[in-house]
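Blinded run. Sample ID left blank on purpose so nobody reads anything into the name before looking at the predicted structure. Input follows.
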Amino acid sequence: MTEFWSTWHLDPITGSFLAFVGWRYMDGIWRLWRRAGTGRGVHRWQVVAFWLGLISIATALLSPIETFAETSLPVHMVQHLLLTLIAPPLLVAGLPPVALMGTLPMDWRKGVARWFLRRKLLKTLWHGATTPGVSWGLYALVLWGWHVPILYQTAVENSAVHLLEHISFFSAAFLFWHSVSIQNITALIVIFTTALHSSMLGVLMTFSNQTWYPAYESLENQQIAGLIMWMGGGIIFLIAGLLVLWRWLYEMEVHHANNVA
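Blinded prediction complete.
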């Protein structure tokens, strides 16, 4: 049992931050549901999605995954998938604007809303960063950039750079999944092309006959990591694309039925 717990990366700062976010989120949800009724404004499934997103982040950063990611490239790849393809879309699904405002104390909400509305540059930057084309490019740049051997190697050896890598992965992924949360043909194209280029990176790692990252040394581990990115990431993108397509077709059907009626 001692050996098991010694492999956990129980960072108090990360743990406290995640606990604080979870507390503020639920406080806002309870306030909303007391006023509007349980499940109104934010659905139960959205709350579940948000918590699964937080748990995914905790698993990536606090569990033995964080410990073994320093010496195992396949585990490091699993960590990256948690931070880019699992946690961000779950958090986006569970954090509609009404829930986001609910996380703020009651007496802050109007002030924060007024402050944001007056910041034209901030609104412009947010709108630009969450458009499908820009978020697609940012995600591609971050994904391919951090897998350049010299940058990846530096992140493995330097904890500050490693932290920057995690933040940039998660931030770019959050913007990406936020941009495709609107169910339309553009979202499908963005998901498909991202699945294509990320799978290509995984294929290159899988079939390379040279070790890209000296810190991990093993070519076999590199190939396993590439396979995880290629197949694991591909499956997640496929599921996301099918969900977007289903929701889009469903809304079109409802819209058509309403027009006929």
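Unblinding after everyone has recorded impressions. Residues 111 and 117 are 10 Å apart (CA to CA).
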